[in-house]
Amino acid sequence: MTLIDLDQSATTAVRREVLEAMWPYLTGAYGNASSRHALGRHAADGLAAARETVARLAGVRPAQIVFTSGGTESDNLAVIGLTLGAIAAGRGRHIVVSAIEHEAVRASADYLARWHDIEVSVLPVNNSGLVDAGALEAVVRHDTALVSVQHANNEVGSLQPVQQLGELARAVGARFHVDAVQTAGWVSLDASVSPELSTADAITVSAHKLGGPKGVGALVLRTNAPLEPVIHGGGQERDRRSGTENVAGAIGFARALELAAAEHDPTTVARVSADRDAFIHAVTNSVPGAHLTGHPTLRLPAHASFVVPGIGGEPLLVALDDAGVLASSGSACAAGRDEPSPVLLAMGFDADTARTAIRFTWGVSTTQDELTRAAHLLANSAASLRA
């Protein structure tokens, strides 16, 4: 049975070109980038080249790229590091996050509240999963240290008005962090190309969401905002993130980002978006009661999420898996928990309906035929579970 992978917001396959770029640094040039001998110098050169590539694609200087172990660490470094850095520079002990942020952001905010006496304001969202700028304007203050809002929600795909939200944060002198894990690759990280990112002080990116390896990501620092390290040790990454650098991972990350930037041109994005809309239409017309979650148009190009009242999300996932369709019931980082999605609860869904959530996400190589077949198998699976 040929599998149809529609769970690519959880992770993606490592591309052959990425593996080929990494291989020399896993074998011949495997040295520690901090070592002064030949192998170490080769590794350091590779790391520098990867940093330059990521910086070029993000429209910043190489010194503004902090390599990390992935999105979760980058979110922790941004939320905790920028907040503590701002406080050390004289800002107040107040931060703002949205109600539907990734768990890494929410948990970092909770940590600051518990251990550093930080006041946390939580922005509500509407039933499409969007933050209203007026809600931020109502809570942001002249002593606010940080505002953190994701570019796109991983569960429902809605794209946030991050440029406008960042302008409100900047107006009071607060730092603005954007988690762009889900949009990197689809949207350029370069603010001259993507003006919606022009107000961000820091941007989170992860390699394995765009054809790169797991275990590596970056925090892109677009300004010189003070940043306190979260991981302490040998002072790597300009004293901002200690630990032996994952040279091969960084090289794979840079190559994956480079490939995604070249392939996600406007024509391709338009095609994928059209396939998404056709898939949504097919599902809502063939699965009784299926309701799209997230904004109908302001959403990721390859993302469709639904609730199907009366059918549990987990049984539907099992039925689809048996039929050869890989999907998800929500965030992969919170999978396996018998709890309704906090994202859907924040959007106004009741707990029972939230437990019926199912998410489909794909990539540029996914065909229209695969999506048509997946919609058909979803309808069959839903009907059999209702029988």
From TrEMBL:
Domain Aminotransferase class V: 6-372
GO molecular function, one term: metal ion binding
Catalysis performed (reactions): (sulfur carrier)-H + L-cysteine = (sulfur carrier)-SH + L-alanine
Keyword Metal-binding: yes
CC cofactor: pyridoxal 5'-phosphate
Record-linked Gene3D superfamilies: 1.10.260.50, Aspartate Aminotransferase, domain 1, Type I PLP-dependent aspartate aminotransferase-like (Major domain)
SUPFAM superfamilies documented for this protein: PLP-dependent transferases
Keyword terms: Iron, Iron-sulfur, Metal-binding, Pyridoxal phosphate, Transferase
Family: Belongs to the class-V pyridoxal-phosphate-dependent aminotransferase family. NifS/IscS subfamily.
Name of the molecule in the record: Cysteine desulfurase
Chain's gene name: iscS
